[in-house]
């Protein structure tokens, strides 16, 4: 066991504060990672404030982790000391179910082990990336290509794979019209990825405040959802709408923007239940779907794709003492577009 510095929420809704946590000794197939950067995801806020369900406290959030391997277990074959690596939203799964065997560890039938706010196979709580070091099984660690800056790569471990996986699954590409709903931490990466895949990309945002940014990041069109004319003009337009919004929506209004056989895919997760009139699905053979993160192999594929196309996330680098302020700014949509903590300040 090793004691390391971290920032934790001591209880639900409490401000995060500096503390120390215990990391397990490096096992046979583990890597010890010196964390350099950790992204702040909206889901960190949901969990630290018991928005989705009752959490485990003290809680060290953070599942967008980028760092350097400083030690490897004797059985490790995939990584060496000095390698640039990342860790996303999970650090283990059962490895035996059909989903795990198919590279869909995110949908492990027995439930994957979250990077934080979870219990590992020994029954010990997991602690995330708002810390100086983490020990992770090599099979749940990915390589960050040299073409990506570590700070800009960190948010890709959640925001990148959460948008890449559904865009690939629903076959975004040339000839497809894709709308990205929400131009935030997930949405801005989704725009970049959809554009790089070759789709015609439209941003649907509450206002036109971020229009210039959206067009620079690869959007072909940009509309304000606060304008009723948007829904008239775009009726029946899209093959895919990727919703990154964590607030309840008028799903009927957005389903009306889909073509026949179109899909509205949710990666944002509102805390409240939603209601849908099923006729908005029936009248056009439309789908209302959801998507989680991605498997380990797909996460590596996503990182390689982003490096090949020369982009990471748009970030604002902060010190650890600014985490609580950053949480409030995320809730106020006052970030362009992902806060990243410099772990050297922890």
Give your account of this protein's structure.
The protein is α/β, with parallel strands linked by helices and 346 residues long. The chain has eleven helices and 17 strands. The protein has helices spanning 42-48, 98-101, 150-153, 159-169, 187-196, 211-217, 228-233, 251-255, 279-282, 296-309, 323-331; strands at 2-8, 17-23, 30-39, 65-72, 84-87, 90-92, 113-114, 133-137, 142-143, 177-181, 200-205, 221-224, 238-243, 258-266, 287-290, 315-318, 338-342. Strands 3, 4, 5, 8, 9, 16 and 17 form a seven-stranded mixed β-sheet that branches. Strands 12-11-10-13-14-15 form a six-stranded parallel β-sheet, with helices on one face. A two-stranded antiparallel ribbon has the order 1-2. Strand 14 (258-266), helix 9 (279-282) and strand 15 (287-290) form a beta-alpha-beta unit. Helix 4 (159-169) crosses helix 5 and helix 4 (159-169) crosses helix 10. The protein is globular.
**Helix content range:** 10-25%
Computed over alpha carbons, the radius of gyration is: 20 Å
| Alpha-beta classification | alpha/beta
- How many strand elements? 17
What's the SSE pattern? EEEHEEEHEEEHHEHEHEHEHEHEHEHE
* Uncertain segments: none
Question: Helical stretch count?
Answer: 11
CA-based shape? globular
